[in-house]
Amino acid sequence: MMGLYYWDMKYWLYILPGLLLAMYAQGKIRENFEHYSKVYNRHQLTGRSLAERILKKYGMYDVKIERIRGNLTDHYDPSAMTLRLSEDVYDSTSIAALGIAAHEVGHAIQHEESYGPLRFRNALVPLAGLGSNLSYFLIFIGLMFYGPLLRLGIALFAITVLFQLLTLPVEYDASHRAKVLLRDGVLDASEMVGVEKILSAAALTYVASLLTAAGTLLRLLSLGRRND
């Protein structure tokens, strides 16, 4: 499918804004993480100890915390009720580590409180997975051989775009929660500057993904109308 897109110059025009924003956001994440991973918090809290402190405050004693390999692989797994922190975050006392750990704890709190957008997004996971895996195949067959499959493929791809759209409020809310938690006696104003920069750059990556997916959808809709 990407081979087909490679020769479609209009497709690249549709997704160019998202690609440029993604490149900018990834560059800012690397730049800010590299800088603030060398700036340490005054309380000498590690990513793990901060997570434990917040989870205890919320009475979430059943949430486990694990160390995982990789760089920026941190995430909260609601099915296992496990907060997984990367090696650069788990034992680090850096400002970057605390910002990332607090963001992931924010997701755990969302799950605990049954945060509406998160529940809606999670309900779409099976359909979004199906759309991601099957839509390109159906679109290719539809463009080459059988038009009705093109419309089905576009509909499935639209679900993945909706999933990414719902991801935005979930991620922004987790970042907002992280900032509130860190301002509550953990970091001072000067330390919060680094957290703000890291979380803002991370949020841009989700906006970029949505813009790229939306651009792809618009191009597919254009092709669908042309094939009618």
TrEMBL record:
Pfam families membership: Zn_peptidase_2
Chain ranges passing through the membrane: 123-145, 152-170, 198-221
InterPro entries: Zn_peptidase_2
Keywords: Membrane, Transmembrane, Transmembrane helix
Taxonomic source organism: Aedoeadaptatus ivorii
Protein name: Neutral zinc metallopeptidase
